[in-house]
Hints:
The chain is mostly helical. The chain has one domain (about 5-215). The chain has eight helices and three strands, in the order H-H-H-H-E-H-H-H-H-E-E. The protein has a three-stranded mixed β-sheet with strand order 1-3-2, covered by helices on one side. It is globular, with a radius of gyration of 18 Å. The chain starts with 5 loop residues before the first helix and ends in a 6-residue tail after the last strand.
Amino acid sequence: MNESNLYTRITAGTGILFGRSTDQRVLSGMFNRYRPDGQGLESLLGNNNDVEREVLARIRRVFDAASSGWDPCDLYFVVRQPTPVNEMKAIQLAETFLNGLKNFADFLGDAELRDALEGRRITLQAPKGQEVDEDTPTMVYECLTDFLAEQQPAQNDLFALKEAIYSMANDYFLMAFILWPAMKITGPASNAFDGYYELWRCGIGLKYFAAGDVAVTLPFKRL
């Protein structure tokens, strides 16, 4: 077996016939086979180069966050026991995520997205009387999904795993975090979605408002 061939390793490790011309959707749910602790993932990833090893490390971080409270009937990776954080830490994590999005917008050269994110104020409670801003999160989502669609296996074999990784939690932001090392992006945007993983594992949600506030929500009693 050619250990450097990701497609060969996937077929050998999972029994799924997978090649360069195969529809990526056949890998949907693939990582559920390795739950709850990710045992055996090294047969698929991590033995070829530093980028693979970093992607594997990020996949393992998702396993770690979702392993507590895992139910064998789960179709997706769910964080049932979020990492507890206090209010100040929650605000810091939200700010890190928003700064990452700004760096992503700068990397894309998307001035409209950058302007929509500029000057946002993180709050712990939804501001009274403000209208919800649905346009900004939609803009972020569309910019990210368009960017991810451009990343193809011809650039890096790891992009053949996009459907497998997306289906872990049906989450494009988490997919971006996992595959970001394969983008080979340098500068401020090199860790643009690290902040999203921290929000996800802590169960923190964000809600945008038209006047510029972004409210942080926690899934449990604040410490």
